[in-house]
Amino acid sequence: IGPSSSHTVGPMKAAYQFSQLVKEKNPSKIRAELFGSLALTGKGHGTDIAIYHGLAGQQPHLIEPNCPLPNLDRFELIFHKDKLLPKHTNGMLFTALDRNGKDIAHQIYYSIGGGFIVTEEEYGHEKHDRKPEPYPFNTAEQLLHHCAKNKLSIRELMLANEKTWRSEDEIKSGLLHIADVMQKCIERGCHTEGILPGFLKVKRRAPDLYKKLCSQGSPKPSEHADVMHWLNVYAMAVNEENAAGGRIVTAPTNGAAGIIPSVLHYYKNFLPNSNDDGVITFLLTAGAIAILYKKGASISGAEVGCQGEVGVASSMAAGALTAVLGGTLSQIEKSAEIAMEHHLGMTCDPIGGFVQIPCIERNAMGSVKAVNATRIALMEDESGGHKVSLDKVIAAMRQTGKDMMSIYKETSLGGLAAAIKDPHGVATANIPEC
């Protein structure tokens, strides 16, 4: 559910998890306290609404968009705009209180990006409650080594790993379901007009752009003249749906959710011989690249800026597109690296805390960059001037995120967010560096 994986999906999951944890204690009230980036941009990102729904028993993958708010009598929400919890800027403290106001249970959660949450105790500790996969990897070097040694494509390696936990039929049908949700999101975004929530009063642009392009004829394989226009429409349609609180696929985050669908549908609509098998290859390859960033850096805009969201999504899409176009392992790695290299240092600075400006257009730009990175990689041979490895650019992204001031990391206190002030007043806060 939109508009943010770290600020909407994660908090709803945490609230739901805590509500189930204390259910048998029958608390009189549950207090939720938000810290850091969650507190500063929570209103624009729908964090408050997400927490109320989560505490009332709703889950982000099941809740209907625009679901009415539950009764709020038993809930209390506090925004600590000038405080941080120690381990991550997206921190939450939930406390269950009895009728006398006594603390009967409490738990700290961190929303670490992509909708993933961990408790205070889990933070930084890998879980080992699943069967080990046959080809574990943390780096691109390890991934490519497994592929070369065992004569596997990235698709084949990922499929073998996933089969540790579920059947091949389940994996493939699940991936095609993801692609179908993406397709329907694009369709809704291309046909739903109106104004997005918030004081910015941003008009949905995808429907008008879609009509203009359709008046010139539907997209056809091998016709590349208007490819950039269609990439823009696909990406903007998804992110306008996200901004409106609609149903999207977190890939790898909500704020960057338009790039994978846009490039995937470029493959389906413009390239000859596209099919479901290619869709499966695309998504498995994109998933492998996402794992590299998740383990080697971060996909949290509040932790490393938008390079960890739009940059990672563009890198995933570039590698995936290269794979379905028959690129070698080296070319897949190269295209993913190129796409990230040209997002390094990108700040996360949504105006007013709404996932709208510059987020919607950034997805369009990230989609175009992904396709261009693929074209560059496929034009060059194996020795074609590839000086920086994917692992090195991931390390550079991680360090750049660490060096970035907190005002540029999803706090809406600096960068483009400072260009237009929220008339309701997002107070400037003195946030200590994590």
Range of strand content: 5-15%
H and E string:
HEHHEEEEHHHHHHHHHHHH
Q: What general outline do the C-alpha atoms trace?
A: globular
Q: What's the helical proportion of residues?
A: 40-55%
Total beta-strand segments:
5
What's the tally of helices?
A: 15
Mean pLDDT: 93
Distance between the termini: 28 Å
- Uncertain parts: 426-434
Structural class: alpha+beta
3D structure, described in words:
The structure is a single chain. With 434 residues, the chain is an alpha+beta fold. The protein has 15 helices and five strands. It has helices spanning 5-21, 36-45, 47-55, 140-150, 154-162, 168-191, 206-214, 227-243, 259-270, 276-296, 301-304, 310-324, 329-341, 359-379, 390-403, and strands at 29-35, 75-80, 90-97, 103-113, 116-119. It has a five-stranded mixed sheet with strand order 2-1-3-4-5. β3 and β4 (103-113) form a beta hairpin. α6 packs across α9, α8 packs antiparallel against α14 and α9 (259-270) runs parallel beside α12 (310-324). The model is unreliable at 426-434 (pLDDT under 50).
